[in-house]
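Subject: Protein entry, chain in single-letter code together with its fold tokens

Area: Proteins and the way their chains fold up in space.

Attached in line: The record itself begins immediately under this heading.
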Amino acid sequence: MRKPNSAMLALRDPAAAALIGGLPSDFGNDYGFGSDFGADAPTAENMAKAWQEKQATKSRERLLYPNRDSSAKIQRYCFAINQTLPLGVAAAISMTGKPETEFRPQRVTCNVPSVGFVTFGSLKVANVGVLVGGTVDGADFSFNGQDQELDVPTLTPANEVKATGDYTGLVPAPFNNGAAFTLALSFKGPATMAGG
């Protein structure tokens, strides 16, 4: 087989070749353009426009199918651990859970209704302590917090997340004493695509 020359390489992706100025100067039918572009040879401008339209289309399609051209299928997911608390009665918190897929949390949020509602003394992800000292108010992880990204280890289905702390017994308005409240600590980040 002959080694490819510049004309042969340009024919593999003529739009890309036109964009970088790699097309041969002869655009005649010898290069196979006649049937695709009519009697006139394509211009570098037309080919560059076609290339740009193709790239714009691929960019838009990635919004619906971000993993189409990748062998690693990654999406953004949310994983949560929960505990139901009877409001008005101070209680220890101990929540654990395992994700169903490989997961790299980047943000941790908690649905506490107010400051002083819950404190966390320990948060371990895959046996690595995310809190490195002291007690943290659950409001530090509230949904409206800013710059809440943490360097959390990657979880596999074999690893677990464990959070321990205390519910203080506070009953903020509009909640009622004795009502059940589901405390949720959620983790958000990229993960391998979970099965159906």
